[in-house]
Design goal:
heterodimer; A: mainly alpha; two-stranded antiparallel sheet; 12 helices; 2 strands; about 5% strand; B: about 55% helix
Chain lengths: ~250, ~200
């Protein structure tokens, strides 16, 4: 009953969002960041959290655990995330993606022994990754304002809302109870540390070697997110390349 | 009355106007994807060769100078500031930016330890060709690398490179703007300082 009420509420909010839109960018502007002052404060906090906690922990995690163990932990976490992804594939009408992920979940859970191994990728069956933020995009909801969230990092109004909904919609959270849920949480943390250490140099470059790490993170996040969604709406490439033969760029 | 002769004359007239108004992209999809394959091969041979990192960065810079439209990239990265910048400063900046980019991205290439690039498709996007490729670094899943190529200078040259949708020009434009702000907007000062960065 509680599940139904919260789903009903989410439905109401989504229809409100679709009608009113999240905060909308003025025309001609590629980056909509009305909350920049607050975002920059959050960024400073996140950077401190990274340099004091996340980065050193990730380096230690990577140093202590053998690579195959790190891979197993990440595989386990990813596999448990598949049912939630399948819900979004279905909501987007992507039956092919849902089917692939379902097959992947079945294979990795059985042949992959509870998701610790990833025979699916070896077979060429890669994850069709998605989330509720993308579902909202498919349903026509605008990106909204850029947000830097505490701990979670760069996001947008649409993606932040999507993140919360994903937590509610996740089938595994209903199925897995303690103590198994703490294994899952542990695996998620391990996966984050693994990712942080794998992308270590790039993240370090952006956060610690840029003149403006906030603007870099924002630019990189938005470009990559729009690319992954297949969102060409904001592509300003028309004006991006100065062409001395046609005239000064606008 | 629209006869065949008047129709052809009008059609030819329209074509010649179009040719003068907007230089047509003479570049073919093959030329664009061949450029990508060639540059990938040159980069790979630099990475496999012996020598210090510094000498490799210089070799990367030579590849950039040969195959990238450095002038356009520099102007695009400066954005609207380029319009009020003197030609001397622009060319100093273009030169300095070339070295900075070669060191900054060269370092990432060398740290990744090599990989392969396989062209998937080439698309005509009007002002430039877009060559999409799958890049693979051993031990990681494939990722998308897209190259934008045009021939406004007379031969096929790069004007941008995107990794998973993240454009070098767009990202560097944000960073260069921040660096300029730190130097009171002085392009010449930035050009001097870029020599020590990357």
């Amino acid at each position: 009953m509680a599940q139904k009420t919260s789903l009903f509420r989410i439905g109401l909010i989504i229809s409100a969002l679709t009608v009113a839109g999240c905060s909308v960018a003025p025309p001609g502007v590629d980056t909509h960041d009305p909350a920049e002052a607050t975002n920059r404060q959050v960024h400073a906090f996140n950077k401190a959290l990274d340099s004091n906690v996340l980065r050193p922990t990730a380096l230690a995690y990577d140093a202590v655990l053998p690579d195959p163990v790190e891979d197993s932990v990440s595989n386990f976490a990813s596999n448990l995330g598949l049912p939630g992804t399948i819900v979004n594939n279905a909501l987007q009408g992507d039956l092919l993606g849902a089917g692939k992920n379902l097959l992947r979940f079945a294979i990795n859970t059985t042949a992959g022994i509870g998701g610790i191994f990833d025979p699916s990728t070896v077979m060429g069956l890669e994850e069709v990754d998605t989330d509720f933020g993308e579902t909202l995009f498919v349903w026509g909801v605008q990106e909204g304002a850029y947000l830097e969230l505490p701990v979670l990092g760069p996001s947008t109004e649409r993606d932040a809302f999507g993140f919360v909904v994903d937590l509610v919609l996740d089938p595994m959270s209903a199925v897995i109870t303690s103590p198994e849920s703490s294994y899952r949480t542990g695996a998620r943390v391990g996966d984050i540390l693994h990712t942080r250490s794998q992308l270590g140099d790039q993240i370090d470059g952006v956060l610690y070697e840029s003149a403006d790490s906030y603007a870099q993170a924002r630019s990189i996040y938005l470009q990559n997110r729009r690319f992954k969604l297949g969102d060409d709406a904001g592509d300003a490439f028309e004006d991006l390349y100065a062409d001395p033969y046609i005239g000064p760029e606008e | 009355m629209l006869t065949r002769r008047t129709f052809i004359t009008r059609a030819l007239g329209t074509l010649s106007i179009a040719a003068v108004a907007a230089p047509a992209l003479a570049l073919t999809t093959n030329q664009a994807s061949n450029l990508v394959t060639q540059v990938a091969a040159e980069i790979t041979s630099i990475m496999n060769a012996g020598g210090s990192r510094t000498s490799k960065y210089r070799s990367f810079e030579q590849v950039f100078a040969r195959h990238a439209d450095a002038n356009t990239i520099a102007r695009s990265v400066l954005g609207p500031t380029a319009r009020s910048t003197s030609n001397a400063d622009l060319s100093a900046f273009a030169q300095a930016f070339q070295g900075y980019v070669s060191r900054k991205y060269g370092k990432q290439l060398l740290d990744a330890g090599g990989g392969s690039v396989a062209v998937k498709s080439t698309r005509d996007r009007g002002r430039f060709m877009e060559v999409r490729a799958d890049a693979r670094i051993p031990g990681q899943s494939t990722f998308d690398v897209t190259f934008r190529v045009w021939d406004q200078t007379g031969s096929p040259k790069f004007i941008d490179m995107l990794v998973e949708g993240i454009s070098l020009v767009t990202t560097e434009r944000t960073e260069i703007q921040a660096l300029l702000d730190q130097r009171g907007g002085s392009v010449s000062r930035l050009a001097r300082d870029l020599g020590n960065m990357g």
